[in-house]
Amino acid sequence: MKLQESSASFSLFLILNSFLSGPAFAHQVTFYVHNKCPFPVWPATAANRGHPVIADGGFYLPSGETQRIVAPWDWNGRIWARTGCNFNSNWQPGCETGDCDGRLACNGLIGTPPVTLVQISLQADKSKPNFYDVSLVDGYNLPVSVTNKQTSPKCTIGGCSKSLKNWCPHELQVLNNNGEVVACKSACLAFNLDSFCCRNDYGSPEKCRPNVYSKIFKEACPSYYSYAFDSPPPLVNCAATEYFVTFCPSSWGGEYKST
């Protein structure tokens, strides 16, 4: 009799657990982060204020591999890739680009620019689309594409058509210890001028216009934000629960020679 009661209780536990965990799972969005670069990258995440850290804020991703990460259905934040990392020494920074205080798990810290940012705003109301974009407002370190699982054109942000590292003006270049270009600063980051940063007297679309540097960014990566008031806004809205974020979706001769 006791064995029957125990079995019945366990069966009831399984039913209740399935019932309770179902909606929680449905209230999540999955990102498959894929590395098509011919070298490892260290993807990182940072949540906007009031939202939780996901995927510990950062992880190692070898070339050719994919990592699945899950976010709450109303999550807001950013995803980027770090390059040239070494966390086995006391050197600072720990990465050539996108570093977060020398840590593998950024745990909420924002990466050091210049870095290509995937910016995400998920909607708690599943009848509404999610919003995302790729921004070069803080500069560039790697190309990235974003799409839903069905790869719908409406939901897709493509990669770059040219190597921005190869096209980066000398005054915007970030070099590693070997003298290789590993990132390209935005004009705002490089010169800190209101006219480039779209602030103060230039804090409106009418006053802050495309400049020679943002036009170089836009020509190389037409689907990304090239400066703060880029128009038409390259913002995607797409209702889905699974997305692919791919680093180095395309390749050009000298773009990926350094790690």
The low-pLDDT segments are 1-25
Would you count the extended β strands for me?
11
Q: Estimate the global geometry from the Cα principal axes.
A: globular
Distance between the termini: 66 Å
CATH topology: Thaumatin
Work out the helicity level: 10-25%
Q: What name goes with the CATH superfamily?
A: Thaumatin
CATH top level label: Mainly Beta
Throw out a few tags for this protein.
Thaumatin-like protein; disulfide bond; Osmotin/thaumatin-like_sf; globular; 259 residues; 4-stranded mixed sheet; 5 helices; secreted; Thaumatin; alpha+beta; 18% helix; 5-stranded antiparallel sheet; signal
Walk me through what this model shows:
With about 260 residues, the protein is an alpha+beta fold. The chain has one domain: Thaumatin, CATH 2.60.110. It contains 5 helices and 11 strands; from the N terminus they run H-E-E-E-E-E-E-E-H-E-E-H-H-H-E-E. The chain has helices at about 1-25, 165, 185-190, 195, 210-220; strands at about 30-35, 40-45, 65-70, 75-80, 115-120, 130-135, 145-150, 175, 180-185, 235-240, 240-245. The strands form 3 sheets. Strands 2-4-5-6-10 form a 5-stranded antiparallel beta sheet, with no helix packed on it. It has a 4-stranded mixed beta sheet with strand order 3-1-11-7. A two-stranded antiparallel sheet has the order 8-9. Strand 5 and strand 6 form a beta hairpin. It starts with a helix and ends in a 12-residue tail after the last strand. InterPro entries: Osmotin/thaumatin-like_sf (IPR037176), Thaumatin (IPR001938). It is found in: Secreted.
